[in-house]
């Protein structure tokens, strides 16, 4: 069973939800009791480990988990919005990230 050793946020300070992404990353790192690393606009990292568009270009922010063997897995690439309010939802973001982390740990 893999073990997560670090949460990595590849962020973009210009992004309108930057503070929400940082808060999410901090919350997850605290819950998992692991290190948090925040990269600033590292598009090469996002291309290597995250989601990309049809042309192979990545967008930011994206959230990752690093496993003890050094592999990096994508946790979240799009911040979820509440369908009722059409506003960013911290609750949904934490829930989706925790579900993805659970999948990573079970693989």
Topology:
Blueprint: E1 4-11, H1 18-32, E2 35-40, H2 43-49, E3 62-67, E4 72-76, E5 81-82, E6 87-88, H3 90-106
Parallel strand pairs: 1-2
Antiparallel strand pairs: 1-3, 3-4, 5-6
Helix pairs in contact: 1-3
What attributes does this structure have?
Glutaredoxin, alpha+beta, 107 residues, 4-stranded mixed β-sheet, 3 helices
Characterise the protein shown here:
- The chain has 107 residues and is an alpha+beta fold.
- The chain has one domain (4-106): 3-Layer(aba) Sandwich (Glutaredoxin).
- Helix content is 36%, strand content 27%.
- It has a four-stranded mixed sheet, with helices on both faces. Strands 5-6 form a two-stranded antiparallel ribbon.
- α1 (18-32) packs across α3.
- It is globular and about 40 Å long.
- The model has no long low-confidence stretch (mean pLDDT 97).
User: Largest sheet, if any?
Assistant: 4 strands, mixed
**Can you tell me the overall shape?**
globular
Low-confidence stretches: none
Structural class: alpha+beta
**What is the helix fraction of residues, given as a range?**
25-40%
Give the overall average pLDDT: 97
At CATH level 3, the topology is Glutaredoxin
Element order: H for helix, E for strand? EHEHEEEEH
Instruction: Identify the CATH class.
Output: Alpha Beta
Please identify, by name, the CATH architecture. 3-Layer(aba) Sandwich
Number of strands: 6
Total of helices:
3
What is the distance, rounded to the nearest whole angstrom, between the alpha carbons of the first and last residues?
7 Å
